[in-house]
Structure formats: structure tokens, C-alpha cells
Amino acid sequence: MTYSFYFGNYQFMKRIKTVEWVSKSAHSIMPGKVRFIDQTKLPNKFLHISTTDIDTIWHAIKQLKVRGAPAIGVAAAFGIAAHVQDSREKTTAKLLKAAEKAGKYLATSRPTAVNLFWAIDRMIIFARAAANLAPKDFKESLICEAIAIRDNDAEMCLKIGTHGSKLIKNGFTILTHCNAGGLATAEIGTALAPMYVAKDKGLQIKVYADETRPLLQGARLTAWELMQNGIDVTLICDNTAGWLMKQGKIDCVMVGADRIAANGDSANKIGTYSVAVLAKEHGIPFYVLAPSSTFDPKLTSGDQIPIEERAPEEVTCGFGRRTAPETVKVYSPAFDVTPARLISAIVCERGILRPPFKGKIR
Ligand code: MRU
After folding, report:
1. Top-level CATH class of 3-158?
2. What one-character-per-residue DSSP string does 48-92 give?
3. Which ligand 1 atom is nearest residue 290's CA?
4. Which CATH class is domain 166-353?
5. How far is the CA of 325 from the centre of ligand 1 (A)?
6. pLDDT tens-digit profile of 87-146?
7. Closest residue (by CA) to atom 6 of ligand 1?
8. Which of 62, 99, 193, 224 could form a disulfide bond with 127, CB atoms 3.0-4.6 angstroms apart?
9. Is the pTM of this model over 0.85?
10. How far, in Å, is the centroid of ligand 1 from the Cα of 178?
11. Domain locations in the chain as residue ranges
12. Any idea which residues carry the catalytic annotation?
């Protein structure tokens, strides 16, 4: 794929493919497998999982082996394609049923990121339209559609990077929360994309990465990814952000999103809302960066966004070490919703949206 609007040189991020389709033959996409980086092993090990098994993909999404809103959408699309490819059904009508069943199942893996449902819907709409094809062609066409979803995401992120980089000035220090980088998408990320583009343009930037309790996506993934790409990153505990802002050390905040309602309210990793409140208090611009697959215009406000709750053990016994009494009560939402009034701009592949967002998002 070539990108005519920006000729960047994302050497590393282009080489690591977070989720992709791999086949043995260079001449055929079938038989193939979905291959993704096992992000639970990072930063200690860089390992891939290759599979066509729908249960393995469901559990990989649930356990955050593949995570980040766009990346789980791409994984689900490949999951449907892989499941249909391996199906022994002899008719296209039955293969279509298998695709629909796989889509319904994968939709139960995580509730918040709308990209998952967006990608599944796109696959099923495509499959229904392709139901007149012969079984082999139907299988191949589903794989092609899943690859197109992956490629579209890579392209959207690159555009987000290009637009978002206009918000960054030379010498800026940027705060980010969780991981909305290449590991969360098909290629260069959403919130981290402008940083890669800024670096490519020769701007000097620094990044503070919140460690992002309880699963440490900031520490394990964002810090790792930015370091791999030669970006000056400093890891902080989540509760350090306000103090840095108070000292005038943050020029802007850039975060991703899992679902954006029609009024601009944006769900993202738990802790994002607190960062937005702090940014408002200190007069620091707070930017949300996401592709159009993250928008859910059916929802009029963020109150309607379903928030995933995670298992207590992720808080009390994270990474195998008990840090709280076994029977303590735990509340662990995976996401929170930042109200639109705290957001300075939403950057998507079409450009930079400024408030008021209502009407513009639809
Ligand atoms: O639970 P995770 O790791 O999937 O949460 C990810 C985030 O909150 C990201 O910021 C969001 O998905 C945007 S990714 C471009």
C-alpha cells in the first residue's frame, strides 16, 4: 500500500504488524492464519500467536493478548475469515451461517470498544452480499475483506498522525495514557501517530507515559513502543500526572478512544477522565485521537457507553504477585468516559474536530 498524502519513514512500526493474515504461499491467501503479537508478554518477550481457532481468538481478545480498540476489530475480522476458511460446510449458505455465528460469538469478548462491533458488522454485511459466490470464492473474499479492514485502519491511523502532528510544536512535551500506539492498531496508532509523524518531520518532542494501572499498558507497551521508535519517553506513575502539569511540564495531552458518542463524550482506558480534569484545571489542551470506526453516532451521550468490568485478580494479584488481601472487595472498570466539555479537539482521519462536537460527528 502506498500513502500519497504523507511520505513518512516509520521503519519500525511498519515492520511490526500487530495483527495480520499470513499464508504459506506467496501466491495464495488460502490456507492462511491470523497472526498477532502476544501483548501480555511484552516488554519481556516479543512473541506471536498464529491461529485459525475462533476460541483462541476470543480468549486472546478477552485476555488482552491482542488489545486496543482498532486492533481487536481487525482481530475479530480475521477471526471470522479464518473460521469460515476452516469450515467443512459444503454450501455458501451454510458458510454464511458459520460466519454469522462466529461474529456473534466474537462480539461477546469485550463490550466497550465499538471498533469490535464495527468490524464484525462490516464482515457480516460483506458476507451476505457475497452469498452468491462459490464456496471457495466466498472464503477467499472474506479473507480479502478482513485484510481490507486491516489496511483501512493502517491508512486511517497514518492520516490521524498527519492531522494530529499539526497540534505539536517543536519542543513540546506530551502526556499520554494507556497505549494507543501501533500495538493498539494495525500500524502506527492513533494518539501516538502524531508523535511518530512529528519525529519524522524533525521536531524535538518528549513524551510522558502514564503507567496505566492495573494492567500497565503504558509501562509495558507505550514505553516499549516509543523507545523502539527512538522517541524520548519518560514513564510516570498514574498519580504523577497532576504534579507534572502543576509544574508547567506538559504542553498537551493526547489519548486514544474506545467509543465516541454523538456529542463527543469519549470512552478510553480508566484514568483518562482524571487526566482530562487535571488538564482542564491547568489550562492544558486535551486531545482525543481516533479513526471513524471508533465513533458511535447512535449513542447521544457517553452515559450510554457500556463499560467493561475486569476481574478483581487483575488488581489484587496483578502479574502473579498478591498486593491486597485475598477477599477484599474490588471495583475495576476498564474504561471511563471523558465528557466532551473537557476535550479540546477530536482528531480523526478526516481532520481536526473542534467543539462544539454535536452535529459535526454525525
Ligand atoms: O484495555 P485496552 O488495553 O484494550 O484499552 C485500550 C485503550 O484504552 C486505548 O487507549 C484505546 O483502545 C485506543 S487504541 C488506539
Report:
1. mainly alpha
2. EEEE--HHHHHHHHHTTSS-SHHHHHHHHHHHHHHHHHH----SH
3. 15
4. alpha beta
5. 28
6. 999 999 999 999 999 999 999 999 999 999 999 999 999 999 999 999 999 999 999 999
7. 68
8. 99
9. yes
10. 7
11. 3-158, 166-353
12. 258
